[in-house]
């Protein structure tokens, strides 16, 4: 079996497929994901015999979903495929792929973090691809997310931007990313996406005067400005590049004179693969990479070594330290079984001692919850939704805004980057746990409890009975956090429930008088009560759905929310 990406036009339904010849399958459930993320799970295919096309053995619905996106004018990259070889067992191959993929977190930003950790542990891209049963291109695409600004990565994690847009942004310079993010965050501006973003980034090779490293008065050609005179462009590209290259060479020489032992100027358009390198100080041999975009923009990446060089440096440093201690050629005085015996007894003593120091144990628990270990695996709830309006409503809510501010404060207290999307970032590294533990030991109890509260909040799984139990126990009044918005009303479908809600806010008479009206009309009346538009305004109202404990309006119930409430009611009497 070989994994590769194959263009949609080279794929067709296999005649052996039991569904071949039937109508196109219903792909409505997976279509939103394919539009947003593309096809992630490889199709199982085999060559047709003419050498140019492949027939699909498994993955027919994924193929039709991708075809639907393409037919609607969307962009679809070549699909990941597992190409069968003579003698391959289709059922066994498909089961193997599904088993491998089940080990991979579905969130692509989490995949990026996992792959970065593995590369820093010495794993090559091809090794990672083999481990999870995906193509090397998919691994490199995830690693390329590291080239994005934190704000863009956050927007992608929350599904505010799609995969095609992110793909193009990974090829943008930092200045272009900042310009695009400014448009994205502005309520009055339009941020180009998909193929329009590609045109915005690469359409035309005009070079802005902002990219020049040299004084503009040394350029002898014409500078063209826009209608407002705010942006200028070099009319003579050859003269620009002559001056720009001279300035780049001068910058390289200055960096060398400043003490950097090596400065590499990459080819125009070549990106710096940060994920394949490790940040290293100048003193420890780090080098400088200079990248130049086709638009002439220059970025300087100071202090990097390839991951392979960094590991070799660390091994050499360890060997030197052992030599300095006189231990490089000496056999340890303890055998492995002896070390195991001593380690277990020390472990038992430390565990017992922790019982008398709950404050220390609390700090260690929090460190593990944040950093993870071989025995701890934690992750923040992704707040997954297929509805963009729902994501926007939650992101702008009072509760999420307050949590974000507290998170930023906690990250600063722990010495972590304040722009991280979550405090929790478990990677199983006990060294990281020690660093966090040391930081927590310096904090007073009150601050540790604040950290713990944020960690618990981030790792609280949405839609569970635990949320219902907490809300009921804490007597949370949602009126302090939530107000009815368009996203809420758009999701109400059951007419009987809408009528009962109208009765809740407007009384039986109003509800009965409109019992035959459409659900849309009744929702309009509910809105009128909330705004006071032609109705007596009702302030401080919240639907039963938002109250703790949860309550439905009809006997049909609220699905898992009703189930959670019933369970909590029986347990918390």
Account of the 3D structure:
It is a single chain. The protein is of the alpha/beta class. It folds into 4 domains: 2-163, Conserved hypothetical protein from pyrococcus furiosus pfu- 392566-001, ParB domain; 204-329, no CATH class; 339-460, no CATH class; 478-571, no CATH class. 48% of the residues lie in helices and 9% in strands. The protein has a 5-stranded mixed beta sheet, with helices on both faces. A 4-stranded mixed beta sheet has the order 8-10-11-9. Strand 6 and strand 7 form a beta hairpin. Helix 8 (163-169) runs parallel beside helix 10 (194-202). It starts with a strand and ends with a helix. The model is unreliable at 16-21 (pLDDT under 50).
Q: Give the integer mean of the pLDDT values.
A: 81
What would CATH call the architecture of the largest domain? Alpha-Beta Complex
Query: What is the number of domains?
Result: 4
Uncertain runs with pLDDT below 50, 5 residues or more? 16-21
Main beta sheet strand tally, sense and closure = 5 strands, mixed
From the N-terminal CA to the C-terminal CA, the straight-line distance is: 58 Å
Strand arrangement in the largest pleated sheet? 1-5-3-4-2
Overall helicity: 40-55%
How many beta-strand elements? Answer: 11
Structural class: alpha/beta
Computed over alpha carbons, the radius of gyration is 29 Å
Shape: globular
- Tally the helices: 24
Classified by CATH, the class of the largest domain is Alpha Beta
- CATH topology name of the largest domain, in short, is Conserved hypothetical protein from pyrococcus furiosus pfu- 392566-001, ParB domain
CATH H-level homologous superfamily name of the largest domain:
Conserved hypothetical protein from pyrococcus furiosus pfu- 392566-001, ParB domain
Task: Determine the strand fraction and express it as a percent band.
Answer: 5-15%
